[in-house]
Structure formats: C-alpha cells, structure tokens
Amino acid sequence: MKSDFKEKVYTIDRTYSRRVNPETLQVNLGNRCNQQCAHCHVDASPSGAKIMSKEVMGDIVIFLSKKKDLILDVTGGCPELNPNFKYFIEKAKPHAKEIKVRSNLTVLLEPGMEGMAQFYKDQGVHLVCSMPCYTRENVDKQRGEGVFDKSIKALRILNELGYGKEENLVLDLVYNPGGAVLPGEQSGLERDYKKVLKEKYQVTFSYLLTITNAPIKRFEQYLKANGNFDKYMKLLMDNFNENVAGNIMCRKLLSVGWDGTLYDCDFNQALNLSLKDKSDKTIKVSDISPDELQEREIIFENHCYCCTAGAGSSCEGALKK
Ligand code: SF4
Ligand code: SF4
Q1: In ligand 2, which atom is closest to the CA atom of 273?
Q2: In the chain, how long is the greatest CA-to-CA distance?
Q3: Inside any domain, residue 2
Q4: What's the average pLDDT block by block, 10 residues per block, for the chain (321 residues)?
C-alpha cells in the first residue's frame, strides 16, 4: 500500500507537517506493565525491561524548567511500576503547568501501590485511565480476564477520594475500539458510559476520550493474524478527514522515550522514528531546549492515518469535538 500520508497533508497545507509551539511533553517511563493487552502499541508486559533512570528524569526536569508552561503527560507501560515514579512527579511538579498520568487502573490494586491514589490527589495529578468499554465481556477480551472488575474497584477508590467528582480532581477514561473499526462518536459514547457506569456500578468520571487504534506493534500483529491489516489501513485512508489534519497532536506535543530520546509522538516512539539533528544523530532531551523544537518537520508514515480518520484521534481524544 502506498505511503502517501505526507503528500496528502501537503496538498492541504504544507505547514501542517511542522511543529508549532510545544504545549505538552509526554514522557514514557518504560515498558513494564502488570497487563499484556491485545492492542498495546508499546508491547508492554510484566517482563518489560526498559525502565527510565533517575538521571534521565533529571534531564527532563531541566527541560521542563526552561519553559515552565508545558503540560507533563506521564505514560508507559505502566508508569507507576517505574521504581522512581513518585520521585519524578515530585521533582517535575514545580516546573510543569499540569501533570497528567496515564494509568491502567488495575495497577492500583497491585501489592505496594496502596498509597498511590492518595499520592495522585496530594500532587493534584490529572488522571487519564484506560477503560475500553463499559461491559465486562469487552474489557476482559481486550485487556485480560478479571481486568474489568479490578478497574471498577480502582475507580471506586478514586471516586472515594473525590476523583471524577470534584472539579480539580479530573478522572478521564479512554475508549479504544475492540477491533478493526473506528471509534464511535465521542460525546454519545460518553453519555452511554456515564449512564451505565453510574447505574450499574455507582462510578463517576470526568470526560471520555476516544482513541483510534494505531496499526503498529501488537495491534498490527493482531490485524495481520486475522487477515485484517490491509482492510484496516484502507478504512483509515478512506476516512481521512482534512478538517482535522491541522490539529494532529504532534504539532504541539513532544514524546520522550525511557532513555531520553525525543520523538514526535508515542507512536513514532514505538516505531523508533526519533528526532535527528543535521548530522543524523538522535536527539536526546538533554541536547535541546523546548524553543529549538518549533518549526521542525514531523516524521510522517502510513500509521499516521490513525490520527486523521473520521473525527481524528489524539491522546486527548477526538480532534473534532
Ligand atoms: S495497553 Fe496499557 S495497560 Fe495494556 S499492556 Fe499496554 S501499557 Fe499495559
Ligand atoms: S502518528 Fe504521530 S506523527 Fe503521525 S500524525 Fe499521529 S501524532 Fe503525528
């Protein structure tokens, strides 16, 4: 299949392939996770051995301190399983405009994580939690046996602390489709989630974010194993939406890998498409300041179609609200 995402974007507006002023620094603390989901685009698992060191965390804090108005978006794997997770959040807090943590919820029930929910609250962390459906059947199919019940238990712990209830304790949920289809309309799905989770499980949350599955890594293998890869790519391409192409998240976001390497986004990170300097050397977070990253060309490949299909997709949910 022809790789023409860049050409397609160029036909609309050539500036869409360039970064504007960065607003978010997304940091991947490593690929260790207590789960092993069928659609994981970073191939995370309990045996994940890529764990960000304290030294790299220090480089990130210096980077943040040079701009002060960046949102720090912490992800993984399972970020809480990095042994220096709390250290990093505490050090970064004075330098970030806001701190978001992407949590899989079930980790809150793991041994040693008893005080984590309270820690989030004390640090004023904005939580973004995976919950790909409001039915047990669909969640367990995608994320593993028993994950739904554990997620509900974790959500109740967070609700008890005020998350998803009080204005300053934001608890967002993330939906991604169970197969080779585009997500449903975000606000309609949010209404359904809120109704079912409240009525059946007495759980509340702030906003639902819909994310389109990226055709890479474990999801790519899953599509290929089912003979659906070409069909899914065609679906993404056929639904290219030029009205959202200028809002793709990489224009305002930077992604840092576990070893400090910089990328345009988490998907490019998963594919090892790092930012390079003029001599083709990989750029690390310690090599550069935020302002030097403006106007740089973004690396586009075919997987980018997942960001522009239908209502668009990003780590903040649909691009067209
Ligand atoms: S999708 Fe999230 S919860 Fe699932 S294995 Fe990957 S990092 Fe872990
Ligand atoms: S996959 Fe990454 S680089 Fe490609 S359009 Fe999406 S956010 Fe941008």
Answers
A1: 3
A2: 58
A3: no
A4: 81 92 96 89 92 98 94 97 98 98 97 97 98 94 94 98 97 94 97 98 98 93 94 97 96 97 96 94 94 91 96 95 61
Evaluate whether residue 61 is within a structural domain.
yes
The CB of 128 under 6 Å from ligand 1? The reply is no
Query: Does residue 219 lie in a domain region?
Result: no
Nearest to 12 by CA among 264, 300, 315: 300
How many alpha carbons fall within 13 Å on the CB side of residue 147? 24
Residue 311's nearest CA partner among 245, 250, 253 is 245
Number of domains in the chain: 1
Q: What is the pTM of this model?
A: 0.96
Q: CATH no. for residue 156?
A: 3.20.20.70
> Considering only CA atoms, which of 136, 221, 222 is closest in space to residue 179?
222
Give CA–CA dist 88/58, Å, rounded.
8
User: Which residue, by CA, sits nearest to atom 6 of ligand 1?
Assistant: 40
Residue among 13, 248, 271, 296 to mutate when testing ligand 2 (max atoms within 8 A of CB): 248
Q: Which two tokens stand for residue 10?
A: 């160029």
